Amino acid sequence: MSAPTGPAGPATDPESLRARAVDALLRARERTAGLTDCVDDGELVAQHSPLMSPLVWDLAHIGNQEELWLLRAVAGRDAMRPGIDSLYDAFEHPRSERPSLPLLAPAEARGYAADVRGRALDVLDRSPLTGTPLLDAAFAFGMVAQHEQQHDETMLITHQLRRGPVVLTAPPPPRPAAATTVDLPREVLVPGGPFTMGTSTEPWALDNERPAHHRFVPAFHIDTVPVSNGAYLRFMEDGGYTDERWWAPEGWAQIRKHELSAPLFWRREGGQWLRRHFGVVEPVPEDEPVLHVSWYEADAYARWAGRRLPTEAEWEKAARHDPVSGRSLRYPWGDGDPTQELANLGQRHLRPAPVGAYAAGVSPLGVRQLIGDVWEWTSSDFLPYPGFAAFPYREYSEVFFGSAHKVLRGGSFAVDAVACRGTFRNWDLPVRRQIFAGFRTARDAPDTRGVPGAVVS
């Protein structure tokens, strides 16, 4: 049963918010169980890559954060296991060190997380959902559900990195109907002018999405769909990885140092390109969005194509701006929550849909697949919005602001709807390749203010 939504987004009365929070928490825990119950204890405690934590660390960390925020901060209860807080503090121990810590064993971790969840649901049932910043609009409960889903995405990345038998399966995503792609233009013209970026009204928006503010964005063209594997192959075949002209200096140094010549998990064999995808080796599907490329690879492709990556503001305007009403929507298709007809989210499928899919989720300007499928690198550094205020703690966003991290937008097939919206901001180091990231490109355009939704071939 889904939580109630109104015509302009989620309902905000306490009982609707309570139902929404219960649904989000239960959905997250079901996914967590699916990602941890499918492997044995040996695989749970193993570190499958130095880039990632053991799965059992993520499991107990999810429970520990839920206890910290819902049982201690909201309900004022004493710590259940105070001795473990430092073990599951993501800032105290880097991922490479976590296997050597005295972590809870798998059975203990499951029991602890389940115990916390039972008590947290009791707190939710009794809370007025108003009166403090953490309780208002059930924010703390929504934040915890988003946190768990973000770690579920992290655990899914670990599954992609692990070696061993196939343990995760899912049906393929829908293919686009030919009638909806036959005349699909290569790019869309986004008129220049102001729009509202960010949000001050989304109940569970995180601090870096706030506040809403006006941005002027000059006219630009943006790809109608994400860059496909087939298009990226043409960059590779044209010597993209061996031509220094296309690369930022740091990116060129990375590909030379690590001898990179293709996206992560690709290999050339028998005259064709193959990829390893959740334990299955398959020919690279040319019609899917390219996946597992770093910011440097995305930037190099864009330069090779005579284009560039969109800025974060350009991406959000393409996704949210309605030129008819002048309003910024919650999602490209409007204000209603995502459904399986609108976007590829929630690990419903274990891969992005072919480019051009989800025609029902198109933005008012005609851009497709802006939500779900693949995270999209932008050219922008991760910086605070004007009027930013850290909440409920500095370490969520503020400590990451600066030029070291690049912004990604739009979510992926691995992201749940509770942690994906038109304002949601992700960020990572530009060298990252294991994340479910792709991109689309953009280019400057003449000023076309007053020309709503002009489309070019």
From TrEMBL:
EC number: 1.14.99.50
Residues the record lists as binding gamma-L-glutamyl-L-cysteine: 95-98, 428, 432
Residues engaged in binding Fe cation: 61, 147, 151
InterPro entries tied to this protein: CTDL_fold, DinB-like, DinB/YfiT-like, EgtB, EgtB_Actinobacteria, Sulfatase_Mod_Factor_Kinase, SUMF_dom, SUMF_sf
Pfam family, one: DinB_2
Residues in DinB-like domain copies: 25-155
Cofactor field: Fe(2+)
Pathway(s) it belongs to: Amino-acid biosynthesis; ergothioneine biosynthesis
GO molecular function: gamma-glutamyl hercynylcysteine sulfoxide synthase activity; iron ion binding
Domain of life where this protein originates: Bacteria
Keywords linked to the UniProt accession: Iron, Metal-binding, Monooxygenase, Oxidoreductase
Gene3D superfamilies named among the record's database cross-references: dinb family like domain, paralog of FGE (formylglycine-generating enzyme)
Role of this protein: Catalyzes the oxidative sulfurization of hercynine (N-alpha,N-alpha,N-alpha-trimethyl-L-histidine) into hercynyl-gamma-L-glutamyl-L-cysteine sulfoxide, a step in the biosynthesis pathway of ergothioneine.
Family membership noted in the UniProt record: Belongs to the EgtB family.
UniProt-recorded name of the protein: Hercynine oxygenase
Organism: Streptomyces agglomeratus
Lineage: Bacteria, Bacillati, Actinomycetota, Actinomycetes, Kitasatosporales
Gene: egtB
